Amino acid sequence: MTLKFARFGSLGAEEPVVVVDDANGRTRHFSLLPLTQDIDSAFLSRDFVAETQLALDAGRLPAVAPSARIGAPVARPGTVVGIGLNYAAHAAESGLEPPASPVVFLKPANTVAGPYDEFPGLPGSEQLDWEVELGLVIGRHAHLLADEHEAQAAIAGYVLANDLSERSLQLGGAGGQWTKGKSLPGSTPLGPWLVPAVGADGMPFDVSSLPLATRVNGVECQRSTTADMVFRAAFLVHHVSQFMALEPGDVIITGTPEGVAMSGRFEYLKHGDVVEIEAPGLGAQRVVVG
C-alpha cells in the first residue's frame, strides 16, 4: 500500500487527504481531518506517515471523492529555496561550468500554486521559461546539521515542482537578478501530491535516478534523471542548513535538467501554451499560461 498526501478543494479552502494505492491497483482517497486541519508544519513535524497508517487501519479516516481542484500538497511553505544550475547538462546548455558550490536563491511563498492551476503570467512577458524539478519538503527544524545523514532524516517527502522563470528579469541588467525572475505569483506549481521520504513499510522513496520530463504543447522538451544532479538532495539540505534555519513545511526545489527555452532550442512560453511535467511516483502537472 502506497500513501500519498494531497490537498483537495478551492483555493484557500483546501482540505488534507491521503491518496492510497492498494495492491489491487485501486486508488482511494481518505480525509485527514480526523488527524489534522492541513498538511502544514505541525503535521509534517509529527510521525505523520505512521499516524496516517494507524488511522487507516483503524477505519478512522472517512473516504472522500476526488476533488475538482487539487492544491499544492503543502500549505504555504515558510520558505521556498531554489537551487540553480544543478544539472551538468543544463549548466552546459547555459554556456557555464557546473558550479563548485550550490547556487541558492529564494522564492516568495505566494509563488506556490496547485499542479493544474492556470499561471497568470506577467503582462508583456517575452521570456517565460519552464523548469521541471524535484522538490524536497522539510519535516523538522534543520540548522547547522552535522552531516548528510542528519540532512536526509530532515526530509519529510518529495514533490514534483515547476520553477516557471521570467528570464528577462532573471538575467537582464548588471549581473542579473534571479529573485526578480523567480518571484511571479503562482510560478511554483507543486504536486499533485507529496510522497513520504520513507513509506509506512519503512522503505525509502528512491530519488537517486528519478526520471523527469516536460512537454510544451505536446512537444517533449526535457527528459533526464536526477542522476545528472551536481549536488544531491541530502547534500543540498545539509548545505542550506549551514546558513539558514529550515523549518517543517519549507521546500527546496533542486534545479532543472537540460531542455529549457533559454537554451535556444525552443520558443519561450506565451499566452495559451500548455506545460506538462511528470516524474514516476510523483505524478504529473498540467499548467496553462494565462
TrEMBL record:
Listed A to Z, the keywords are: Metal-binding
Residue limits of the Fumarylacetoacetase-like C-terminal domain?
79-289
Taxonomic superkingdom: Bacteria
SUPFAM superfamilies in the cross-refs? FAH (SSF56529)
In the UniProt record, does the keyword Isomerase occur? no
The UniProt family comment states: Belongs to the FAH family.
PANTHER family membership: FUMARYLACETOACETATE HYDROLASE DOMAIN-CONTAINING PROTEIN 2A, FUMARYLACETOACETATE HYDROLASE DOMAIN-CONTAINING PROTEIN 2A-RELATED
Protein name as it appears in the record: 2-keto-4-pentenoate hydratase/2-oxohepta-3-ene-1,7-dioic acid hydratase (Catechol pathway)
Organism name: Arthrobacter woluwensis
